[in-house]
Write a structure and sequence with these properties.
The structure is a homotetramer. With about 350 residues, chain A is an alpha/beta fold. Chain A has 2 domains: about 60 residues, Phospho-2-dehydro-3-deoxyheptonate aldolase, domain 1 (Alpha-Beta Plaits); about 260 residues, TIM Barrel, CATH 3.20.20. Helix content of chain A is about 35%, strand content about 20%. In chain A, helix 3 crosses helix 4, helix 6 packs across helix 7 and helix 10 runs parallel beside helix 11. In chain A, about 60% of the residues are buried. Chains in contact: A-B, A-C, A-D, B-C, B-D, C-D. Chains A and B meet through helix 2, helix 6 and helix 7 of A and helix 2, helix 6 and helix 7 of B. Chains A, B, C, D: GO terms for molecular function: 3-deoxy-7-phosphoheptulonate synthase activity; aldehyde-lyase activity.
């Protein structure tokens, strides 16, 4: 951590700050510049609060050199983490997983039918929302517990592990009991109470990036879960909010190599929410695989125009199968497989 | 709602869509363009899901003409709403409220001392966080229930109503019992389960704008609370996320006249979180009052450099008093008062 | 074009607007809603100025249904345009071009050496900046005319067509005479005087997307050039500005399928400027090819750490060759070739 | 400047970098951290290129402590600069200037009429565009030289100095001869060739902030003009591009106190382009004055609905007069005057 003092900072104030840092067991080195005095702080600086130091009016700014996350950091865990989701391995150098299913569970027949199609196409997990975060209170809010039951039955029918989104701490027991991969949606990426609660269970967590969160904030949210004891975290990019209007969000594929460099956690891509448009899903899926992603989570619906939510971004099963066929060929070029 | 069909949409598909809309009790008018066919849908279109209609591959796009919110909408409630917070009136044409206090409650002595200073300066409510949303799991997470108790004691000592942030549904009873104005923080603006739960109580809610949420999404979150039955909502702008690096966030003051036009709810401004820098707080506070805001919520700390969180953006009590003095003079110019 | 009037718009005002539109040879259809009156305007609406209509205080809003561009639009030009750059074909279903070279020309030896390496690796054009847009007036501003001469000599030595950025109208003669593909940089995407001047020549133009311009604005800038008579436009995405701090810009690969859908012009990707980090270039290059891009423009330098500008994002020649090798394999999977 | 080396950087590489910096006459201080080695560079670091140093693969990152601008910097010029525009003083502690006029000059009668209204209302300069940057090549592009002549005649009729936008270097002679305050528009903020040319004249320049440029980039563009020798620069904020859709741009008023802190140059606000909506102009104008701005530039048109461009954001003269009346009262509260 580098602390820059203002030009006119009084010596006693500088000494006071140095003293308070050294009292925490860290070492301080001093540099005197032309217009500034600069300290370097040496030691485990994750225990320091940069903003508290910046609150001192004699401090110009504070810059972290070391990343603020530890358990997530590849520096201290050089090998790829491989997360086991009910027998399906996510992460590592070889395998790429494809998850498919509808935005919302709409009934037993719908979800079982789609699950079979997903499996037939080569998908290895089934997604389906039972609790739905909707901008409008007047929109369909999901089937709730009933939807989770339908998912469980679809798993029975197909053997596919199931992924569903949790929105509230009071549903944790229901999810631990029934769901194989518990999704934290973009809007809850910084719902810290939920993250802490998920840190205490040992089910795998699919942590979506918030729609305007930096990669660092996202990794810090993963750190919340891991710091609680649950190290089974899979990251998922689903597009960020920008000024562009032709897509619902802007898919940021550069996160793939960055996350691989900064962290050992697996990362998968959601091209459906990222683009909001089924016509872009194939292209972005193939790009994600070429970029090195560990998997895809794609919306699939047998009747997109009848879907109760997000039909616009859903693929029909035959197109989903086509994406997997092409994706597999690209995966093989870079030494992986689907 | 205006629905534009693609150029080559087959007639039977157009008829099918018209039929399905008319079945919901709405009327459809048709326009034939050179390259497109366009419908106008007449009636209460809040019951239609624009995205579901767009999922049809023959539909080019769907545009809402009417706003998607009802209870929040000034169109159906032309007078300003005035919210009563333990006797303090927020909103309306005359009065402007100023709320002050520390980012975090750090102990009884600290909060009571600051509460007295806030009152002496002319503040009418006390803010103080007991449950703190922090990016890092290693940062101070707030005093919790102990902090709420300290706030209650500070209210006893000064008579100031208290404002504090709720982060989780399971704390609602504690907040209803103890807190006068329950804050929903920016990170929870779309925590829909929390919003629904707050819709069932009758304590006033201070709803902060999410750091990258549009004004429309913000009003829809207010609609969630109001649709549940709790019409005591105060909106609070606290800066949005942009590319600019010299400020923590970008304070969007144009929301003040926009919210006044679209809605009847009161709106207050948080210049402390918006800028992240105490040196900008006075300037932005005066600007907010001149822009027509109904109040300010400002971080005040008697020792910013010792603050456990966000000291950098906190004013000392004497500067807070100065902001109120200047702000009152500006308020009087535009026919209001603090 | 759909025009929505305010609820209380007087009838004579509505009639006046209808009259003024019909006077321009367009037809108007009327829809009466519950709270609004809506017109549909039928005909060539590119001659109408939406903002001028919105200036009327009785108008609620104006929405364009048809795209505001014509020559760029795939609707009126269904086949892919293939642009000929000194014999190299850019665009179409089969071929993918890779352009390589340094950010700045630094001298004859440097550029000729790199040109040979680019050619050996499989690159088909040479890039190199002679006039450099730099944020600081104290930074290296490019070699100017001398740099263009070095590029010309490098072309002689290798046969590679050359690409260089123009920053000012007064250099057009120099560029027409010497440069094969004239680049308009991101900062000049809306330098309309420059675009108009480039519309009058018949050299191919490489039009980069501005760092915070929408796809529609970008296509409108291409329309400026084409409307002037020069139809040889190649689009280039180089990252957009967002809140993310781990990358210099955010590469928006979803533009590839969108541009392919909206327009017939070729689109290539610049992964070097998009990421600002050579470690991300390979991953993003492969992703771009998988997404369907018609080419890549990549910074290559034989000594990145000695580069006078942007060395941080430059590949060494051997890594550039590696990107082409892997990219070719991916291209073949999707039925194309490099 | 603080340079952080990667953990495993070899000693000879570190020594090589230190040597190269010391060869430029700067001093280097070394800090050894737990996982990193950090240098502090002391001296005039504006001559170093941070990106060139970062290109070294052993360097983790480079952080500037000192600002990269010099002539713009308040550190080296503590008093406010006051710019003289044909006798009107802009900047300083006392006076606030208000500039009014139409977006585009549309004819002699129109501009002279509006000029008289602007003067009568209390405006001290006349704005009017003769060369117009328009997104569409099919939109009205301005009257050109004819428009400048109309502006000159309007000045003769009223005595108001005139402000107009320059778009291209080849018009500099025309502007120097005729225009009192030469505006560089947002789209040309980084048209560096234009900035350099304007650095060689001595007419005052009104430099608008680019729609997605940081404050630092904006100050660097001012530095370009000043480094060329022209120190008569006035900054103008006109809104930045964000995700929000209810306003055309987001007005960033926090730039006012920041610019005042970092620089000695005057700053004025353009609420018309910032909001794109005349209904927001009064509110944002008063806020700008309260925030400490040195002036306003407001669009005024005697018939907004007939305006050839941007009528939607134009005030009628009587509302413009009202803004000045209210603004003056607020100015007086903070010890200034209009």
């Amino acid at each position: 951590m580098i602390i820059t003092m203002k030009k006119d900072a009084p010596k006693e104030e500088i000494d006071r700050i140095i003293q308070s840092i050294e009292n925490k067991g860290l070492n301080v080195n001093m540099i005197s510049g032309t217009n500034y005095n600069v300290f370097g702080v040496v030691g485990d600086t994750t225990i320091l609060d940069a903003k508290q130091i910046e609150a001192n009016k004699h401090v110009e700014n504070v810059v972290r050199v070391a990343a603020p996350y530890k358990k997530v950091n590849r520096l201290f865990h050089p090998e790829d983490s491989i997360i086991d989701v009910a027998g399906i391995k996510v992460g590592g150098k070889e395998n790429i997983v494809v998850i498919g299913g509808p935005c919302s569970v709409e009934g037993q027949e719908q979800i079982t039918e789609i699950a079979k199609e997903v499996k037939a196409a080569g998908g290895v997990m089934l997604r389906g929302g039972a609790y739905k975060p909707r901008t409008s209170p007047y929109a369909f809010q999901g089937m709730g517990s009933e939807g989770i039951k339908c998912m469980v039955n679809a798993r029975k029918a197909t053997g596919l592990p199931i992924v569903s989104e949790i929105m509230s701490i009071d549903k944790i027991d229901e999810f631990v009991e029934n769901v194989d991969l518990i999704q934290v949606g973009a809007r809850n990426m910084q719902n810290f109470d939920l993250l802490k609660a998920l840190g205490k269970i040992n089910k795998p967590i699919l942590l979506k990036r918030g729609l305007s969160n930096t990669i660092e904030e996202w990794l810090m949210s993963a750190e919340y879960i891991m710091a609680g004891g649950n190290e089974n975290v899979i990251l998922c990019e689903r597009g960020i909010r920008t000024f562009e209007k032709y897509t619902r969000n802007t898919l940021d594929l550069s996160v793939v190599p960055i996350v691989k460099k900064k962290s050992h956690l697996p990362i998968i891509i959601d091209p459906s929410h990222a683009t909001g448009d089924w016509e872009l899903v194939e292209s972005m899926s193939l790009a994600a695989i070429a970029a090195g992603a560990d998997g895809l989570i794609i919306e699939v619906h047998n009747c997109p125009e009848c879907a109760w939510s997000d039909g616009m971004q859903s693929l029909k099963p035959e197109r989903f199968a086509e994406v997997i066929r092409k994706g597999r060929a690209i995966a093989q070029v870079i030494g992986r497989d689907i």
